């Protein structure tokens, strides 16, 4: 507001145009509004971006035990959620010249299309576009303060090849494909359940590095044999059933040729085993 001319007893008050807030003030305003509506500050070292403390329910399969010793245990596949609602975790990063969601593109503070989104944040509400993304599920929104930093476009994440190929060197080429994540998780759960663990006997963890780049960790008794590991791999990756491979130790690299040895005899307790195609 400005005062213009006149005498001691007269004059005119002039209202000027509203001053635009700087990006620093705008970010401060967003954090202030969110805190006034219940947002809680989180220590960055206590929780890394993209993590959520809410436990995920087990969605794999399992074995239904037989009622009698003669009755075979039946495998029961996990039930898939019929509801399309899903919990969503989003990280809102507030930069010097705009904001981004997770690893998305920079969105300007001055763009009118982003005004409603920022107003919702200022009021402590979840923006409509994030609610639509969750389809009725819960939205967990974290805000990160980067107001003193310029936006840097994140590097693209490497995506492994998921197609099919032919293994060379055999008369009839064997086609190996990659199953869906859900099917792969189901196969791994089935393979893990097939390993009979005696809780009264010593137990060890074996880490298996697969030729397809995957990794499996499974509990075995010390009395289990190396061939049990081979059967476990084939159950977890059915596509490898017709593939020739050997099992090896890490440094020093040594092929496990005698698969009748127990894990204790082969000095493989808490070991890492590598699968190599032949």
UniProtKB/TrEMBL annotation:
SMART domains, per database record: SEP, UBX
Molecular function GO terms recorded: ubiquitin binding
Pfam families noted in UniProt: SEP, UBX
GO BP: autophagosome assembly; Golgi organization; membrane fusion; nuclear membrane reassembly; proteasome-mediated ubiquitin-dependent protein catabolic process
Superkingdom classification of source: Eukaryota
Domain UBX: 199-276
Main localisation: cytoplasm
InterPro entries found in the cross-reference section: NSFL1C_SEP_dom_sf, SEP_domain, Ubiquitin-like_domsf, UBX_dom
Annotated spans, Disordered: 1-24, 44-66
GO cellular component: centrosome; cytosol; Golgi apparatus; nucleus
Compartments, as annotated in UniProt: Cytoplasm, Cytoskeleton, Microtubule organizing center, Centrosome; Golgi apparatus; Nucleus
SEP domain ranges (all copies): 87-152
Gene3D superfamilies for the chain: Phosphatidylinositol 3-kinase Catalytic Subunit, Chain A, domain 1, SEP domain
Keywords for the protein's UniProt record, in alphabetical order: Cytoplasm, Cytoskeleton, Golgi apparatus, Nucleus
Name of this chain's protein: NSF1C protein
Organism from which the protein derives: Xiphorhynchus elegans
Taxonomic path: Eukaryota, Metazoa, Chordata, Craniata, Vertebrata
Gene name in the database record: Nsfl1c
């Amino acid at each position: 507001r400005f005062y213009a001319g006149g005498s001691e007893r007269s004059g005119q008050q002039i209202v000027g145009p509203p001053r635009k807030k700087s990006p620093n003030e705008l970010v401060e305003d967003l954090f202030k509004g969110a805190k006034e509506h219940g947002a809680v500050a989180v220590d960055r070292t206590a929780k890394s971006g993209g993590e959520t403390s809410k436990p995920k329910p087990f969605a794999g399969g399992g074995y239904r035990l037989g009622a009698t010793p003669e009755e075979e245990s039946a495998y029961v596949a996990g039930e898939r959620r019929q509801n399309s609602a899903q919990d969503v975790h989003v990280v809102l990063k507030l930069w010097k010249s705009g904001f981004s969601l997770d690893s998305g593109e920079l969105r300007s503070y001055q763009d009118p299309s982003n005004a409603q989104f920022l107003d919702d944040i200022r009021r402590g509400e979840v923006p409509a576009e994030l609610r639509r993304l969750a389809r009725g599920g819960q939205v967990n929104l974290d805000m990160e303060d980067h107001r003193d930093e310029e936006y840097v476009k994140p590097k693209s994440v490497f995506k492994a090849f998921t197609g099919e190929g032919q293994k060379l060197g055999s008369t009839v080429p064997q086609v190996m494909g990659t199953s869906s994540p859900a099917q792969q998780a189901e196969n791994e759960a089935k393979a893990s359940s097939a390993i009979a663990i005696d809780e009264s006997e010593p137990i060890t963890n074996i880490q298996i590095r697969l030729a397809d780049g995957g990794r499996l960790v499974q509990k075995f008794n010390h009395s289990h044999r190396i061939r049990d590991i081979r059967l476990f791999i084939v159950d977890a990756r059915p596509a490898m059933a017709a593939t020739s491979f050997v099992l090896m130790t890490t440094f020093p690299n040594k092929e496990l040729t005698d698969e009748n040895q127990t894990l204790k005899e082969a000095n493989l307790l808490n070991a890492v085993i590598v699968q190599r195609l032949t």
